[in-house]
Design brief:
alpha+beta; globular
Length: 107
Amino acid sequence: MVSGVSKIGYRGEDKGYTLSEEGFDEGLKDILASLKYHRPVLVDMFVRSLDHAVLLTGYNRKAHQLFFLDPNGISPYFQSFTYLQFEQNWHSVVANVRGEIFTSPKD
């Protein structure tokens, strides 16, 4: 996915966090910081027995919500989930980590 992101004019940084509560807290902090600067984050999810990637696009700190674009979703593809729902589903099937790709524009 990092190479795919670079093909459309972005830089991608792949970083993994542990499946622990501390790993979630550290990852969420980094995700919110990236989204604050309007830099979407690709995350690897495990939802209903499926490995799946979604694009996080925004957040509401007060409501503890993340907004995401789901390429397999029903139109409109933009959806949201709470931080707790995200914590329960954010992990990779192929590796024992919480996987994501941070994006930023190429200089």
